[in-house]
């Protein structure tokens, strides 16, 4: 769905590899950390290191992660890093080994489930936070915008947004982002960007009576 050349289009083996929810979580955490050992990921996710090692090997088989010997302390030390900065679903028919899109459809269903869980948790936290039940810093923030765009303008917006996270990641690596908290206080934060035509909302409810469809 993106034309950014830095993004890697999902292959069918990749989609099958991340069909496992824990494997998706490991990949997301490794991507956020930049590089890590199985023990580092096990500690971050609070699961056994040998379980993490198994899933890391499966992700490596799918060519989504690779070892970085330059970061290893010795030949037995295995430090992993992600192969691509980000992925794209690509265009329809991009995977000849999945012509009917069955694997892609399964992946999109899994992602929808993941995002629904995240959104539900964020909304519950937001309600409790603003009512004073969960004091302290908010752990979720919602931002929405609406624009009148042509398809070409939408693609340009996507290209610009795709540059934001990599640039910020580089600033973090170089210590260019000021923070009053130490790096040890960092945790994984999930950022999802969804750009969709408002017409999809009405098209999804054409044959049903719904308060979400004002027509």
Structure description:
The chain has 215 residues and is mainly alpha-helical. Helix content is 45%, strand content 6%. The strands form 2 sheets. It has a 3-stranded antiparallel β-sheet. The two termini are 29 Å apart. The model is unreliable at 1-5 and 209-215 (pLDDT under 50).
Topology of this protein?
Blueprint: E1 8-9, H1 12-17, H2 21-33, E2 35-36, H3 38-45, H4 49-61, E3 65-67, E4 80-82, E5 87-88, H5 102-130, H6 151-173, H7 199-203
Helix pairs in contact: 2-4, 3-4
Q: What is the tally of helical segments?
A: 7
Radius of gyration: 20 Å
Strand order of the largest sheet: 2-4-3
On the 0 to 100 scale, the average pLDDT is 88
Describe the main β-sheet briefly. Answer: 3 strands, antiparallel
In sequence order, what are the helices and strands, one letter per element?
EHHEHHEEEHHH
Low-confidence stretches: 1-5, 209-215
The rough form would be described as: globular
Helix content: 40-55%
| Structural class estimated from helices and strands | mainly alpha
Strand content: 5-15%
N- to C-terminal separation? 29 Å
Please tally the β strands and state the result: 5
In short:
The protein is mainly α and 215 residues long. The protein contains 7 helices and 5 strands.
List the keywords:
disordered C terminus, 6% strand, two-stranded parallel ribbon, mainly alpha, 215 residues, globular, 5 strands, 3-stranded antiparallel sheet, disordered N terminus
């Amino acid at each position: 769905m993106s034309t950014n050349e830095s993004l890697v289009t999902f292959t069918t083996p990749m989609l099958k590899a991340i069909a496992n929810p824990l494997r998706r979580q490991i990949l997301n955490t490794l991507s956020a950390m930049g590089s890590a050992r199985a023990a580092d990921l096990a500690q971050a996710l609070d699961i056994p290191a040998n379980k993490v090692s198994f899933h890391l090997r499966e992700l490596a088989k799918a060519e989504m992660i690779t070892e970085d010997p330059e970061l290893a302390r010795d030949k037995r030390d295995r430090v992993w890093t992600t192969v691509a900065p980000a992925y794209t679903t690509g265009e329809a028919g991009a995977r000849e080994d999945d012509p009917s899109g069955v694997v892609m459809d399964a992946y999109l269903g899994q992602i929808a489930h993941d995002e629904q869980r995240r959104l539900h948790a964020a909304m519950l936290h937001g309600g409790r936070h603003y009512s004073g039940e969960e004091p302290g810093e908010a752990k979720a923030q919602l931002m929405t915008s609406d624009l009148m765009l042509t398809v070409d303008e939408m693609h340009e917006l996507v290209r610009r947004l795709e540059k934001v996270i990599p640039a910020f990641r580089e600033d973090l690596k170089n210590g260019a982002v000021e923070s009053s908290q130490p790096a040890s206080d960092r945790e994984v934060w999930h950022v999802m960007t969804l750009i969709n035509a408002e017409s999809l909302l009405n098209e999804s409810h054409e044959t049903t009576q719904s308060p979400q469809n004002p027509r």
